[in-house]
Structure formats: C-alpha cells, structure tokens
Amino acid sequence: MSDRLETLELLKQTVRRFVRDDLIPAEEDVEEHDRIPEPIIQQLKSLGLFGMTIPEEYGGLGLSLFEEVSIVFEVAYASPVFRSYFGTSNGVGTLGIISHGTEEQRRRYLPRIAKGDLIASFCLTEPDAGSDAAALTTKAVRDGDHYIINGTKRFTTNSPHAGIFTVFARTAPAETRSRGISAFLVERGTPGITVAKPYRKMGFRGSHTADVIFEDVRVPASSLLGGSEGTGFIAAMQSLDHARLHMSAVAVGMCERLIHEGVRYAGERKQFGRTIGQFQLIQAMLADCAAEALAARAMVEKVATEYSAGRHVSKESACCKYFATEALGRIADRVLQIHGGYGYIKEYPVERLFRDARLLRIFEGTSQIQQLVIAKEMLKQAS
Ligand code: COS
Fold first, then answer.
1. Which residues have a Cβ under 8 Å from the Cβ of 140 and sit 6 or more positions away?
2. First to last CA, the chain
3. Which CATH code fits 120-230?
4. Taking the domains of the chain in order of start, what are their residue ranges?
5. How far is CA 68 from CA 48, 73, 304, 343, 379, in A?
6. Is 341:351 a contact under the CB 8 Å cutoff?
7. d(Cα 69, Cα 75) in Å, to the nearest integer?
8. How do residues 31-84 score in pLDDT, each as one tens digit?
9. Which of the four, 100, 149, 211, 382, has the lowest number of CB atoms within 10 Å?
10. Distance from C-alpha of 287 to C-alpha of 338, rounded to nearest angstrom
C-alpha cells in the first residue's frame, strides 16, 4: 500500500471510530439543544476535517475528491449536522477561493479556514433567485478602489458562525444574466452586514441557516474573487459540481446508517411470534434499500475518480446528486415504515434522520435542477 493510501485508510478508521464513539452518542444532545457541543467541534478540528478540500500548502489535508468522498461516507453515518458545519465551510464556502482566488486571497483565508478558526459561507441564493441563480439582484457598484454591495442573501448555511462570505453580486445589468455576476470575499466585520435570526427548520437542528443582509457594504476592490468581474457564476457552478458530489456522498452515508437502523429493528421487533425481519415483505424493503445504497455508492466513487482525474463531470455530478438523494428519500421512508408506529415518535433515530434526509433533495440544487443540468449537458454533447 502506498503511503498516501495508508494515511487515507488510517484517517478513515479514525473517523469511523470517532463517529461510533463520539458523534452518534451526541446526536440527541445536538437535537435537543440545537447546537454542536464545543468539545466535538474541537475534535473535528483536530482531525483536520475543516481543511479536507484545502491544499496542503495552505494547511489543509489536500484530499482529492475521491479521497474526500470516502471520508464523507464515514462521517455522514452520524447525523448530517456534524458534516454540515465543516463540510459546508470548506465545501461551497471555500471551493471558489481554491479554484478562482488570487494567491493573496488564498493566503489570507485558506489557512484559517483549514484550521476551523474561520467559517466560510456561500451567499448565492436570494429571496427571488433560488433555482434561477442567474436572476440574482444583489448589486456591487464600483466606487474608486472599492465596491459597494447591496442586497439580501437567503438560506445561508452557517452564516451565524461565518467569518467570511463568498457573495455573488451583479456588476453588470440584469440583461447580462450569468455573465454580469461577480464574486466577492466579504469579511464579517465589515460595516453594513446583518445576519438575521436563524430559520426554524423541519430538521438539521444544530445547523444554522439565516439570511444575510448587505446594506452599503464597502469592500476593497481586492476582495473581488480572482480579481476579475463577470466570472462569479462560473465559479459558483464549478463549486457546485464538486459540492454536489460531496452531497451525494453524504446521502450514501445516511442511507447506510438508515439501513443499519432498519436491519437492527427488524432483528429485534417481534410480531406474530417471530422477528419481523423473518417476514418476506420486510425483507423486500431491506433488499431494495441495500441495492439502491450500493448503486449510489458506486456512482459516487466512479464520478469522484473521474473528477479527481481532471474530467468535466457536471452531468455525472448532477446524476449522482439526483440518484443518491432520491434513493435516500425512498430508503428513509422504507426504514421508517419498517419501524411502524415507533418510526413516527422520537424514540428511535429514524424519526430525526427522516426529517434531515428531506433536505438533501432540495439544497445545492433541487432534484428538478439536477434533471435540467443532466439533460442540458446531454443535448450539448449531442450537438
Ligand atoms: N461549469 C462551468 N460553466 C458552467 C457550468 C459548470 N458546471 N454550468 C453553467 N456554466 C456556464 C455555461 O456554460 C454558460 O456559459 P456561457 O454564458 O459562456 O454560455 C453560463 O455558465 C450560464 O449557464 P446556463 O446557461 O446553463 O445558465 P442558466 O441560467 O440557464 O441555469 C442552472 C443554470 C439552472 C443550472 C443554475 O442556475 C443552477 O444550478 N441553479 C441551481 C442553483 C443551486 O444549486 N442553488 C442551491 C443553493 S447554493 S448551496
């Protein structure tokens, strides 16, 4: 085994133990108190997980996407809330800085993000620009050596904790659509930024999502991502190609956890004089779950390998997000069904995991947006 493979295997084993020994036992506490306990955040930091995607020269682990998803499979076996904290920060919050940032921007932010000392948030969505991201109206107007930003960003994950925002704003009129969008790295302390009260969500308690309002926020021109206007939309889309694969790996980890919960319950619960796992209708549900989870894992591993080899995988990444998160929805539903009435109360983790799972078909592009991306790429390739 090469040194790199050995190190990855070691990290996987360590994360697996941490998930079983620390994260799963803390899930109920996170749910009840709506926050991740500080000692767990410290452990996530010491494992280097805040720097998974960040190159080693900036203090990160420098994992390839294939290596990243193999760690995410493990960590998403516990509540997805833990992953949401570090995975969104060094995921969509950071990917644009890595791929499009200037050297100065990388040096300024990446080392602190990698340590977990700076949380990064991605501000794309707006009240009237969700699936149609190119319709965003937040404006950045040049004023000498500065830009002045005005607008409202919606559903920004981790914004209450964020120290740096990647803000997508229009530097050219609405008619220019995606070509008039630029990205800015805006520091939290800049005057004019308000982070609203976090939303009360259906699930993902412990992960905080809020609107961020920018009122006459004056930033130096050096905060323009990559130093050039008009490249923000491409940066966002490329970040999403990566992040959607990461999210597919989260779905796989959750599928595997749910299956474990379903098999355990089917082996314990007795009805009609035997464990319900002995009934073929229950077995059929478990078998469907296993087949779909395996298919999702295989897709993610294949496409992550292609991405790591430098291939353009927008279509394949959307296929993974679409299939893996829809499969997760079906698996969560079947496992809840296997639990019967016990699945509908808070006694077993499936009630919480079912609510958490619902979000994965929505964020980082709904299933319907993934379908559009897949078909658009197919037609483009054909012409
Ligand atoms: N990589 C590189 N370039 C890309 C790209 C990608 N993955 N996706 C799009 N582009 C480019 C296109 O090639 C096009 O370039 P040209 O102007 O040079 O032709 C430009 O970006 C615009 O693309 P497109 O015409 O496809 O844009 P649309 O406005 O039609 O819509 C969708 C694009 C719907 C795919 C996009 O708005 C989207 O992903 N929406 C969902 C947003 C989302 O996921 N939000 C979740 C919240 S963020 S966590």
1. 147, 148, 149, 167, 169, 170, 171, 182, 184
2. 44
3. 2.40.110.10
4. 3-115, 120-230, 239-382
5. 12, 9, 9, 32, 30
6. no
7. 10
8. 999 999 999 999 999 999 999 999 999 999 999 999 999 999 999 999 999 999
9. 382
10. 12
Q: Are 287 and 335 contacting, i.e. CB atoms less than 8 angstroms apart? A: no
Residue 369 Cβ < 6 Å to ligand 1: yes
* Chain centroid offset of residue 256 CA: 18
With a 6 Å cutoff on the Cβ, whether 271 touches ligand 1 is no
Q: Which two tokens stand for residue 330?
A: 């079906």
Q: Backbone phi, then psi, for 199, in 5-degree steps?
A: -65, 150
Residue nearest to atom 3 of ligand 1 (CA): 234
Superfamily assignment of 239-382 in CATH?
Answer: Butyryl-CoA Dehydrogenase, subunit A, domain 3 (1.20.140.10)
- Measure the CA–CA gap between 81 and 202, rounded to whole angstroms: 13
For residue 240, report the distance from its CA to the centre of ligand 1, in Å.
9
Q: What is the pLDDT of residues 155-194, one digit of tens each?
A: 999 999 999 999 999 999 999 999 999 999 999 999 999 9
Distances in Å between the Cα of 367 and the Cα atoms of 25, 65, 89, 130 are 32, 22, 23, 13
**What whole-number distance in Å separates Cα of residue 119 and Cα of residue 23?**
20
Question: Which of these CATH numbers, 3.30.420.40, 1.20.1200.10, 3.90.1150.10, 1.10.540.10, describes 3-115?
Answer: 1.10.540.10
The residue type of 241 is D
pLDDT at 148 exceeding the cut of 90: yes
